[in-house]
Amino acid sequence: xxxxxxxxxxxxxREEARPLLTQLQGSLPWVKVGLQMFTAYGPDWVREVADLGxxxxxxxxxxxxxxxxxxxxxxxxxxxIGMLTLHTAGGRAMMAAAQQAQAQIKPDxxxxxxxxxxxxxxxxxxxIGCGSNAATQVSRLAHLGIDAGLSGFVCSPLEVGMLRQAxxxxxxxxxxxxxxxxxxxxxxxxxxxPSYAARAGSTHIVVGxxxxxxxxxxxxxxxxxxxxxx
Length: 230
Description:
Layout: E1 4-8, H1 14-24, E2 30-34, H2 35-51, E3 55-62, H3 66-76, E4 83-87, H4 92-105, E5 110-114, H5 122-127, H6 134-148, E6 152-154, H7 157-166, E7 172-175, H8 194-200, E8 204-207, H9 209-212, H10 217-227
Parallel strand pairs: 1-2, 1-8, 2-3, 3-4, 4-5, 5-6, 6-7, 7-8
Helix pairs in contact: 3-4, 4-6, 6-7
C-alpha cells in the first residue's frame, strides 16, 4: 500500500502560503486547507490551491445538527476538494446525513470522520466527560462512523494499527501528528514518525511544520515521501 503525503498549510496568510506552494509544486500531491485559512479567504482560496495542481483536503471538522451538516456538505461539494472532515462526535444521524449528501452530490469526495484530536490526551478526555482512554474512544467513534456509512477517518498514529485491523480493509486512514525523527513535537500529544504510520497502515499522513519551517521545503517533502516508500 502506498501512503500519500498531505501538507498541512497552517500559515496565517495567503501571502505567506503562495510562495511555499509554488516551491512545492510537483513535490507532493495533497494540501490541507484548514479552518484558519478557509475562514480568512473562503472558497476562492480553495480554488487557488487547486489551480496550482494540488489535491485539496478541506479540514473544517463539521459538527452540527444532521440537516445543517448535510447542507454544508452539499455547498462545499461545489469546490474542487477531494477530502472533507466532520466530527464523529456529532453522532450517527449527523454522519449518515452527511454521507448521503456526499453520495448524491459528489460521489468521489472522501468524507473523513475525526475521532479524537491529536492534541488531546487522557486528561483532556476526562475533562470533557469521556472516561475512556484515547484508544477506546477512537475505536468507539470509528465503529460508529462505519455504521453510519463513512469509509475514512482521521486518527493518531498511535491508533492507526488498531483501526487497520478492526475496520474494513478499504477504509482510508489519514494520520496527523507526524514528526520526522528529531523534530520538535509542538502542541501535539500523540505523535509518531511517517515511516511508523505507513507501516501501521495509514493511507495518508499530514505534515506541517517539518516542511513549512524547513530551509528547503521541497527537499523536506521529498525526503518524507522517500521515507513512506516502505
